[in-house]
Amino acid sequence: MKKLIILAVAALALAGLAGWFLKSHGRTTEPEALTLQGNVDIREVNLGFRVAGRIAEVVRDEGDAARAGEVIARLDPEPYRREAEEGRGQAASLRARLQLLEAGNRPQEIAQASALVREREVTAANAQRLFKRQEELLASKTVSVQEWDDAQARSREAEARLKSAREQLALLEAGFRAEEIAQARADLMRAEAALASAELRLADTVLMAPSDGVVITRAQEPGAIVQAGATVLTVSLTHPVWVRAYIAEPSLGRIHPGMKVQVYTDSRPDQPYFGQIGYISPRAEFTPKSVETPELRTSLVYRLRVVVANSDEGLRQGMPVTVKAEAEGVRNPKSEIRNPKSEGRGPKSEVRH
To answer: Which of 112, 186, 304, 342 has the most CB atoms less than 10 A away?
Structure first.
């Protein structure tokens, strides 16, 4: 009886040992999921006017949402409006002058010059006849030499006046010189450029949000005199939302641009955000002090950027998050990102043959 009990205990022990061996060595273990630590990186933009002036209105306050293209602040536009009006007047004056030069002289002016030519032709012909008569009389000693000289001078003077009238008529008929028209056209172009600059400065008195975001800082109030470029509002952009994480060199081969990942926060550990790796730095660096990893602080790591697809207000600037890589071949439709504005574009995670 005792032998049977001993044999049964030995059989059970062998069976347990065999089960442990098969469990430990009979099948391969699945690789552990890649887990990284990082922080939310939301872009902020300091908004200000491109021109100096007095602030007339600040439309948005801290915490207010700002949509792309919405007016969020205004300067007093009166000085720039008057500058634009002056520019429009100057451009209109030079445009009229150019049209005058291109059109040439008026028909009435040409007709008047033509009439003057005919008048002086008659005068010159009459002076010539008188001179010839005086010349005939001088041959017969009927007139004095002085009278002959006076007749000759009057004839020459009439010819000269006739020539002057003809040249004036030709000048009017030819119109203005090409160089004068080119100069007038250049003056008009300069005035129009000055007008465009004045109108641009007038438009710059209105500050608009460049993209969707939330106002986090209101630095100026109405009535303040600000210089060009001074920050009036700071806006935290809603999109894109990135996660800046670091990966150790031994694990670098387990990731690639376009790889799908899940982003977990402490406030909602059971509701991850979905994204993909959009950028991997080509340069190694030391682990930043603000990043906690199980590796040593002096270990070399590579910075990467994860573009979050379904971001919302739950992700805040600097928030620590945990990034877990999805298994290859698993595709989550929520993680599809269209046109991500990342620092680099890697190969797509799926290749269709």
So the answer is: 304
Instruction: List pLDDT tens digits, range 114-163.
Output: 888 888 888 888 888 887 877 777 777 777 777 777 788 888 888 888 88
Residues 6 or more apart from 322 whose CB is under 8 A from it? 35, 36, 37, 38, 263, 264, 265
**Of 276 and 206, the one with more pLDDT:** 206
Those residues whose C-beta lies under 8 Å from the C-beta of residue 28, and which sit 6 or more positions away, are none
Q: How many CB atoms lie within 10 A of CB 276?
A: 23
Structure confidence at residue 26 (pLDDT): 47
DSSP 329: T
> Which domain does 187 fall in, by range?
86-198
Residue 15 falls inside a structural domain = no
Are residues 209 and 193 both part of a single domain?
no
Same domain, residue pair 187 and 49: no
Q: Specify the number of domains making up the chain.
A: 3
Helix H or strand E encompassing 201? helix 178-203
